[in-house]
Amino acid sequence: MAENKQIPPQFDLNAKWDACLDLTLRRFFYSSLAGAFGGLLFFRSPVTRWASIAFGAGVGLGSAYNECSLKYENSPPKLVAPKISVATASQHEQD
């Protein structure tokens, strides 16, 4: 009597968590690796090399956070430049 109920993709939180965790780990690793390569290529001091690794890790975590927030549809509003018409611009120049 057990029915095989399928969960709609928009409500399947386990799949979303798995995808976000996978994305976060990949982006953290690859951006840290890119930061390490950049640090070895451009910097001599160990402190700046570690800083470039930390910067790469931060970029990876931030991009993963942004992508995961889009998956959960809780993304922050996108900043869009206001549209200025020619009439409005010429009206401000006359004042």
From TrEMBL:
Q: Per UniProt, what is the membrane topology? A: Single-pass membrane protein
Q: Which UniProt keywords apply?
A: Membrane, Mitochondrion, Mitochondrion inner membrane, Transmembrane, Transmembrane helix
Q: What Pfam families does the entry give?
A: DUF543
One GO cellular component term, please give it.
MICOS complex
Q: Which residues form a coiled coil?
A: none
Q: Does the keyword Transmembrane apply?
A: yes
Q: What domain of life is recorded for the organism?
A: Eukaryota
Compartments, as annotated in UniProt = Mitochondrion inner membrane
What function does this protein fulfil? Component of the MICOS complex, a large protein complex of the mitochondrial inner membrane that plays crucial roles in the maintenance of crista junctions, inner membrane architecture, and formation of contact sites to the outer membrane.
Family assignment? Belongs to the MICOS complex subunit Mic10 family.
Please report the name of this protein according to its UniProt entry.
MICOS complex subunit Mic10
Species in which this protein is naturally found: Nelumbo nucifera
